[in-house]
Amino acid sequence: MALTKAQLVDLNANELIIDLDADTSITADTDDQIDIKIAGADDFTFTANTFTALSGSSIVTPTLSVTSSATISGGAINLAAIDIDGGTDIGAAVADADLFIIDDGAGGTNRKVTAARVKTYMGAEGGAFSLDNLDIDGATDIGAAIVDADLFIVDDGAGGTNRKTTAARLKTYAGFDPDAAVVFNESSADVDFRVESNGNSHMLFVNAGSDRVGIGDSSPAYTLELGNSDSGNGVSIAAENNVHKFRCRASATDTQTHLQFENGNGVVGSIKTASSATQFNTSSDYRLKENVDYTWDATTRLKQLKPARFNIIADEKPQIFVSSPEYEFTINDNRIIEIDMQIIDDFGFAFNSDIEDFLQLNKNITAAIIPGTPYAKTIGQYAHQNGVETIIHMPMESHEEDNTVYAVFLNEKLNATLVDERVRFAFEEIPTALGMNNHQGSKATESLQLMKDLARTLKKMNKFFLDSYTNPESRGYITMRRYGVPTQLRQVFLDHGESPHQIKSNLDSLVALSHEMDIAIGIGHVKPITLEVLQRELPRLESEGYRFIRLSQAVR
């Protein structure tokens, strides 16, 4: 019920005493303000919008509801009294614009701050945590050696995503694969390598740009140079076409000293070149001589010599004549010429009498089988039962168009994981295979990365590799050597020509090469004409002293 004006009590700024001892009262002595006095002291005031607890006074309540438009001034809310358990979750990720309450310093003013400012304070601007703010000094040590499975944090490229990586990946990146040879400068960059000794800044020096090595020499002029002091002269050790050479070379065509011999008396001899001739010079310097006697009887000394004229008795040892008349070789009675031949290509597409005859030609001929072909497993088992070695004849990408679809195929677009999977699949199909060679592959073998990935897998599996050498730019052989995979190069393709005469001529060339090289390797194919020639010629060669060895014996 509303009061009428006549019923209202008008204090008119008078103090209203409301207790018996007259120390508690209400006063409206200022327009629009009410003062409350308790126990003789002013404790609280009311205005139109504000309730104020004066100094020394407090408000105690179990539950305080404050509207969004209301404020609490002149004091602080004890954090212990703030309970957010019953609040509603934000329902989303914290955003940069979200606000937090922060005390601006000890005993300071409470203010608002955005989540973005918190990130900045933590060094995590742009979603990344600054390494400057990462302190690991107080962390507990791992307490053990680092193992391959241990994890590191890595930024996936500039401005990329932070990811984890294993210690094993770091070893691979650094080129310290325990299952492969240690390789420096894997990317073949023009980056020199230098080892400094106590007295020489270039005790060992590899000039990456010129492909030269110096020992005690900062600017080697040849493949290997030892302490060269004269520009343009030096000692070169090289390997060309698998023939090892020692060479002393000078770039000039006029008279040049290649070797000079000295003792305590000085220069006592030398070997020089002049144009196209070689001079072997002994010293005749009078300063190196004493007790010179011109009176001795030279004629008498000459008569004591026993010069003789003679004819060499015709050699009765076996003679070998090859297709080129300039080649003629004599085999000593105890001389064994080692030749290794591979019969490859088409093993796996068929299994008939010709295949059986190929595998019975010679126990030391190696059968190369294309994986994924209809008879790959069958031929692998048959060859093994007959004591014939087998290898994987792996199809690889060629520069020439090939419409054949292979179940297993290697090309330069494959990553290391896929290369490993396909190689292992091939060996699982033919488990008796001891190694691998390339079927075609003129393009694939040019790829350094593909050959490195292949080498790593073959090394882990303890398999060898024969480079069929379908491209002079092939990196197969040299890469396998670098990674410690036993390997060899093919020298002759026997049956590029389709005539018996051409096949025999190529076989004769292989025989000729066997006299110049430690191992001569020929590759033939599963063709009836090739079988015909080999059935006739192999027994003849064996009767003349040649021995065919297994490919596993030929690889190094």
Structure write-up:
This protein is of the alpha/beta class and 556 residues long. The chain has four domains: 1-58, no CATH class; 95-122, no CATH class; 193-286, no CATH class; 337-554, TIM Barrel, CATH 3.20.20.370. The protein is 19% helix and 27% strand. The protein contains eleven helices and 29 strands. Strands 21, 22, 23, 24, 25, 26, 27, 28 and 29 form a nine-stranded parallel β-sheet that branches. Helix 6 crosses helix 7. The longest helix has 16 residues, at 528-543. The protein is elongated, with a radius of gyration of 47 Å.
Number of β-strand runs = 29
Helix content: 10-25%
Beta-strand level of the residues, as a percent range? Answer: 25-35%
- According to CATH, the fold-level topology of the largest domain is TIM Barrel
By CATH, the superfamily of the largest domain comes out as Glycoside hydrolase/deacetylase
| Count of the domains | 4
Mean pLDDT over all positions = 77
Rough outline: elongated
